[in-house]
Amino acid sequence: MIPRPTTVLLPAEHWPVLNLGELWRHRDLLWMLTWRGIHVRYKQSVIGAGWAILQPLGLMVVFSVFFGLIVKIPSDGIAYPLFVYTALTLWQFMARAVQEGAGAVALNPHLVSKIYFPRWYLPLAAILAAAVDLAASFLALAVMLLIYGVLPGPGIIVLPLVFVLMLATAIGCCGFLAAMWAIYRDVAHVLPFLLQIWMFCTPVIYPTSLVPEAWHWVYALNPMVTAVDALRWALLGGIPPSAAMVASSTTVALLLLVFGYRWFRKREGVMPDVV
Amino acid sequence: MITATNLSKAFRTGTIGYGATLYSRLGSLLGGAPADDGKRLHWALKDLSFTLAPGEVVGVLGHNGSGKSTLMKLLARITPPTEGRIEIQGRIGALIEIGMGFHPELTGRENIQFSGVLLGMSKAEIAAATPEIIAFADIGAYLDEPVKRYSSGMFMRLAFAVSAHMDAEILLIDEVLAVGDAGFQAKCLERLRWLTASGGRSVLFVSHDMGAVEALCHRAMVLDHGQKVFEGDTAGAIAEYRARQGLA
């Protein structure tokens, strides 16, 4: 039972900005929504959760053929399939988290307008479900490292930090976009386009070393740049992101987190009336 | 126990403002479209105050659009009030739109779990209530089939069963009796009678079924265009409601 001795309901403008206690009390629901998201996604599909691995693998094959073999994009001396797959695991996570997290409120009107629960759980659960897919594609990455005989160095300890950086970015983006999508349907049309641009601004198919060094800190205003470079450095021994890049990315990710959370929270009250 | 003070709820009408496309919003900002469109408000509930004491069963009557369901949504925290204040002591259980937490791809059993959590039950409470819910819904082997393969009757039976096994000190019940065949409806009414009579629960009961209102409620209020026009004994409320419907 969720203990609720006295609850006072007030107009939305009196709501506290931070409602962590409320979120914690309903945490069972977050796990349930995450479980449901994963469960439903692969129901009535033959390959099921295998898709979480097959999608980035498929992209890796295509990219390796076109960009690695034909266009011969440099990869800082790393085997191109490994180079591109490492980045694809992270990018696919971000793309899926943002795509599904952004639509989480607008595409669940039957939940939002019919029942009370902290609305934040909808985008959060979408992000967590994407994280489960990320874990699956990391398993495939481990197998690839074995095949290529690459042994990760001690840099592997930064992995949790890479994940935290991406999580902050995803939560911030989803908070803003989910609230926007609930009110303005235009987001549905703009988002795939934005995600595509975002991918081109991330060193997925090409290395950061192609960008002039003086511009690296600007380039890293996209937190995914530092995330991808840090992972490549940790696992494959690529070029580590510079201090300036880490600073740029961390600042942007934190600002996004605070801004996205507040933006969503301020519009939480109106969501049931507009979705 | 519920104490509501000067409760009002306004909805925006028209599409500009909320529920609009960004383009139309930009258009109105640039002076292209009438800018006052988004500011039109519809007051679904206006300045309503009432109390619901522990153990009391109170009916809420009114024509369609009188604000009954808006009131229920405010109390269930689904949407915040525009003005006023609600104080609630105890846990609220809402039998408002049954089956809303169901997902078509999940089986009946999985949906019991999921919608139970959604309704605010803990995992232990759901585990304890599940055998009773299954027995009440009585849908046999379909329990382990995806809900999308259910007939609408089966769906409603399971949905009602889940909602009606929520343990809460305060229940909000909104038009949930029109469920299933005559046999199941009788079972539902029996369940509601038990819920309202036992455990000292406070109940707010919305229905157009005057028989059920008369049978279950201790007193009642009548809403008209978002305002309370009557509060008192059940028979008086029913008479007032009928008079306003032109049925006298």
Question: Could you walk me through the main structural features you see in this protein, from its secondary elements to its overall organization?
Answer:
The complex is a heterodimer of chains A (275) and B (248). With 275 residues, chain A is mostly helical. Chain A has one domain. Chain A is built from twelve helices and one strand, in the order βαααααααααααα. Chain A has helices spanning 20-25, 27-41, 51-70, 80-103, 109-112, 121-148, 159-183, 186-200, 216-219, 223-236, 243-267, 271-274; one strand at 6-9. In chain A, helix 4 (80-103) runs antiparallel to helix 6 (121-148), helix 4 (80-103) runs parallel beside helix 7 (159-183) and helix 4 (80-103) runs antiparallel to helix 8. The longest helix of chain A is centred in the middle third of the chain and has 28 residues, at 121-148. Chain B has 248 residues and is α/β, with parallel strands linked by helices. Chain B has a single domain (51-244), classed as P-loop containing nucleotide triphosphate hydrolases (Rossmann fold, 3-Layer(aba) Sandwich). In chain B, the strands form two sheets. Chain B has a six-stranded mixed sheet, with helices on both faces. In chain B, strands 2-1-4 form a three-stranded antiparallel sheet, covered by helices on one side. In chain B, helix 3 (108-118) crosses helix 4 and helix 4 crosses helix 5 (152-163). The longest helix of chain B is centred in the last third of the chain and has 16 residues, at 182-197. The two termini of chain B are 33 Å apart. The chains are: A mainly alpha (275), B alpha/beta (248).
